[in-house]
Amino acid sequence: MRANFPKLGSKLGYGALLALTVIYSVFPIYWMINTSFREPSTIYTAIEFFPSAFTWENFSTLLELTDYPTWFANSVIVALGTVAVTIVLSVLIAYAVTRLQFRGKTLVIGTMLYAYMFPPLLLAIPLATLFVRIGLSDTLLSLVISHTTLALPLGVWLLWGFFKQIPHDVEEAAMVDGCSRLRAFVLVVLPLTLPGIVTVAIFAFLLSWTDYVFALVMVSSDVNKTLPVGLDTMVGLYELRWGELMAGSTLIALPLFVMFTFLSRFFIRGLAAGAVKG
Amino acid sequence: MASIEIRNVTKKFGDLTVVDDVSMSIDDGELMVFVGPSGCGKSTTLRMVAGLETTTAGTIMIGDRDVTRLDPKDRNIAMVFQNYALYAHKSVYGNLAFGLRMRGASKAEIDKRVREAAATLGIDDLLERRPKQLSGGQRQRVALGRALVRDPDAFLLDEPLSNLDAKLRVRMREEIGSLHSRIGTSMIYVTHDQVEAMTLGNRIAVMKDGRLQQVGAPLEVYDNPANQFVASFIGSPEMNQVDARLEAAGSGLRLMGDGFAIDLSTARSAGLSAGADVVLGLRPEHLEVLPDGAEDGVEFRMRVDLVEPMGAQTLLLCREGGTSLRVLISRNDGISRGDRVAMRLGDGRYHLFDAASGTTLKSIGTKVI
After folding, report:
1. Domain check: are B164 and B246 in the same one?
2. Number of structural domains, chain B?
3. A175 touches chain B (CB under 8 A)
4. ipTM above 0.90, yes or no
């Protein structure tokens, strides 16, 4: 009986730690959703863990008073553009690095992740200067390019791990079976890399969807603002209207929730594979 | 079905020559085994036949078509890879059907041929499974099925059994042998296992350092190896090789070595001349242990250093002076470590190699009457 005490104690300890971690991670999200559905008048007067009166008012005000639909559309365009360009480039680069023999190959892969050593602002300023010179400043394309610059290194690195894992024999078997090299790549290699591709897509989407720094530096006109920067303008204009702000944040988070619900299986598999194959 | 001809084929990777001027022809319906140690160029030669490697020089013909510059898909060959190379994202059915789909076969035709191949290989109940749900032997069957279903001009098999355990390997070897007899398509089979080569091949091609050492029927290569390398590579346990010198002795010749002297009759020494440094090759199974007290015909007297009972046979390691010999005899429980045994060349079988070049000077691999 006495021997069971430490076991029970450690179980309770683990449980408490787990509960704390979950609360720490989930509570801000819960508070955001909770606030977005509360009566605007009650937000400043009472602390309510459950809305006393459930209302869509914050959402309707947000859509009435701001360019939310435009920001949303801009965010979708930039994020999907970033995902598309990142996937195409990282698949091609990672495949070339895996299959071709050239001097300094390991160095190329090794230095890929150095891109993440620098704070985003440090990269954003020279990039913005560059875009001004080539006439791309204040465009959604400039954001797509900036976000791709950030997402690509990890994408290449992750997919490199996947391609390394696929034996050459499988591709060669497809070629003997009647495929050209390109067809073997499309029909055999790509499907086997699907968890990796989905992981890269989620990562690129997440990076682009939540980016604030690049959007702030690259885009100045209201019509080209994305969601994070657009919402930020509300803080200045309406003096912290928490209800609308939380409603906007909830809407920003919604696509991410949906995406993770359906694709988290791939994401975890992809990250795990990338982690051990590096 | 078609014959395969490899003419003066060379493959270089930079300055490194991995296949050096190899020529041979594989008859229509023949099973040719490429055998040799790792890095001998056997797999590279096979891959050149498949079109997965380009040739640096030479020509490859399949039937009457020069396929040297053709892509793998245009050669109408099928290949089985060492690690199966199954498509992990497809079912067994999808794996078998893939090659036919790529060639534009109709759905009905694909279904008929996939089911026929699956039935031939006994995998018809596995068609809906994914490769990761199969055992090693089942995966190997699927890999064979993928080749079989296409009815190609030739089958190329690159060490297909090396990932299987010993027992399964023997079973699959028998299955491949009987499959070849049934379908009668030309096959090239690559292995580093000489037992596999001997048991499967209609002929075997022994390679070393990118060069073809000998091509012949398994027993012909075993009985009359072209050189010291082939002699040591083919046969298990490995052939004993001991330094010796040929000296004149009366009308015949005598082989003198460290701890032994063997008189060679005129019949056994025809074509040899005295004064040459040679290497004497003796297969362990060709040495005969004489009964205790035997005096006539004794060619070796040695001390037994090790006795390895193998069931039906006993392997002895015998030493005398600087010479040591492995001797394979029928089970003999009466011999133990430290015993002295008298031996002679069983049925007069021996091989002599030039000490400098390693080429065969004389091979008496079968019984001398």
Report:
1. no
2. 2
3. yes
4. no
